[in-house]
Specification:
Bound molecules: iron/sulfur cluster
Strand content: 15-25%
Strand order of the largest sheet: 1-2-3-4-5
Number of helices: 13
Low-confidence stretches: 443-461
CATH topology of the largest domain: Transcription Regulator spoIIAA
Length: about 450
């Protein structure tokens, strides 16, 4: 059993853990009572995830005491951060495993079987390893993540990721394209390229020492190459881009490649230049907006969503008003908004935590209100327009669901005999809800849309 706490990167790592274990003969279960091995894959970006780990381990303690042969492991960012200390804190824990050590899991489990508690949290800086996913015929998937880089060289002062994931390491383009291609041949229709600053990707070995990105077109060229070499794919997304790496070449790729959605989730964190500076985000509100505008000009109807933090140390009411300005000026149609909370091991700890909880809460509520109104207005503007939907699931209400080319969640009203899972369909929006759309196929039936292939172009990667 693999239990995931935290972000998309962790969901992706959990899948890799399952695959490594499957190759060792393990079968997956969702019931702790049936498991011989329980891996808790952790996140330390937000306070709650760490609390969740300790309370989850507490709940698993009686099970471990009743069945001493059950192996209890902690993986992910908390494991990386705490290492062997976690074995001391939790005496019934058998194994601690860093994110780069997933391939070592079988050897570590052999040690545990031999009676040795183990902790391995070593970054693979010299020769980075990227595990490839293979399509699973027993669990066919429409959408998958593919890692293109790991670690982070940014130093955002509120963030623990550079400590828990290490320095940036990049995956060769051949490996990335091979994985995307294999998944697409196995039925996957949407791939999301994954990395902490995904658009800083460049071909390893091409960079000259000391230079972060030798070519501003490297990531755009990777997108073009995937579009050209994997024609089975319907959508290609990426997360999370850093505003500093939104280059003209990337904007041009959005204009050229129909495979890319007309939407990007572009974290901004704050609209105040003073706060952005204390966060070490290395852009101003004006620079962020300039890049946002260039993306929005790439295609008609292009939308942006973002991440925002309120109550960062020293944030004044005026700083917060700059954030509301940014939300309005960028026209975000959705946002993940959080109250700042100090995290152990981050540089921002030295700045204190001087915004009172009540003020944070009040600013968060005001921010939610502005974002929600913009989201509602955007969704209402789509009524009676046509959307292109990739069908990814069937809801409890029996309706098919998917995402539009702008990533809006769409519920589909279809004839009962239609089973469009994994298809790219065109539908007319009949109704807008607060967070999603209802769409129907023209004439009650949906029509597949033919995707234009991108122009052939040689990448420089
Ligand atoms: S870019 Fe900043 S917030 Fe994102 S992972 Fe890197 S340090 Fe953390």
């Amino acid at each position: 059993m693999v239990q995931t706490l935290g972000c998309q990167m962790n969901v992706h790592d959990s899948r890799r853990i399952r695959e490594v274990l499957r190759d060792e003969g393990y079968e997956s279960t969702d019931e702790a009572e049936l498991a011989d091995l329980i891996v808790v894959n952790t996140c330390s970006v937000r306070e709650k995830a760490e609390h969740k780990l300790m309370s989850l381990l507490g709940r698993l303690r009686p099970l471990k005491e009743a069945r001493r042969d059950v192996v209890l492991a902690v993986a992910g960012c908390v494991a990386q951060q705490e290492g062997a200390r976690l074995l001391k804190k939790v005496p019934y824990l058998d194994l601690v495993l860093g994110p780069d050590n997933i391939p070592d899991l079988p050897a570590l489990l052999a040690d545990v079987d031999a009676g040795r508690r183990r902790s391995l949290t070593v970054f693979d800086l010299d020769s980075p390893r990227f595990l490839s996913a293979a399509p699973d015929p027993e669990r066919p998937e429409v959408a998958c993540f593919v890692t293109v880089m790991k670690g982070c060289d940014e130093r955002c002062t509120y963030c623990i990721v550079p400590t828990t994931r290490g320095a940036e390491r990049y995956r060769p383009a051949d490996e990335i394209v091979a994985e995307v291609s294999s998944l697409a041949r196995g039925g996957v229709r949407e791939v999301t390229l994954l990395g902490q600053t995904v658009n800083s990707w460049y071909e390893p070995g091409v960079a000259r020492p000391g230079l972060r990105a030798p070519s501003e077109s490297a990531f755009a060229d990777l997108l073009r190459r995937i579009a050209r070499e994997v024609p089975e794919l319907s959508r290609l997304r990426y997360t999370s881009p850093h505003p500093r790496h939104i280059t003209p070449a990337l904007v041009a790729a959005h204009a050229e490649l129909e495979l890319l959605p007309a939407h990007v989730h572009l974290p901004s964190q704050s609209g105040s230049d003073a706060v952005l500076k204390r966060m070490s985000r290395r852009y101003t509100q004006a620079e962020y907006l300039e890049r946002a505008e260039s993306l929005k000009s790439a295609r008609p109807g292009f939308t942006l969503s973002t991440d925002l933090i309120v109550g960062f140390p020293g944030e004044t009411e005026e700083d917060f008003l700059h954030t509301l300005d940014l939300v309005r000026n960028a026209g975000f149609v959705a946002a993940f908004c959080f109250k700042y909370s100090p995290r152990p091991g981050t540089p921002a700890l030295s700045l204190g935590d001087d915004v009172p909880e009540g003020v944070k809460q009040e600013r968060l509520a005001r921010l939610f209100e502005v974002v929600a109104e913009q989201q509602r207005a955007h969704l209402r503007s789509l009524v009676d327009t046509e959307v292109e939907v990739l069908v990814t699931a069937r809801g409890d209400d029996g309706r098919w669901q998917g995402r539009s080319q702008r990533h809006e969640k769409v519920h589909l009203e279809l004839a009962p005999d239609v089973t469009p899972m994994g298809e790219l369909l065109r539908a007319r929006v009949a109704e807008a809800f607060d967070h999603s759309l209802l769409a129907v196929g023209r004439g009650g039936r949906l029509e597949p849309k033919r995707r234009r292939l991108p122009l052939a172009q040689e990448p420089s990667t």
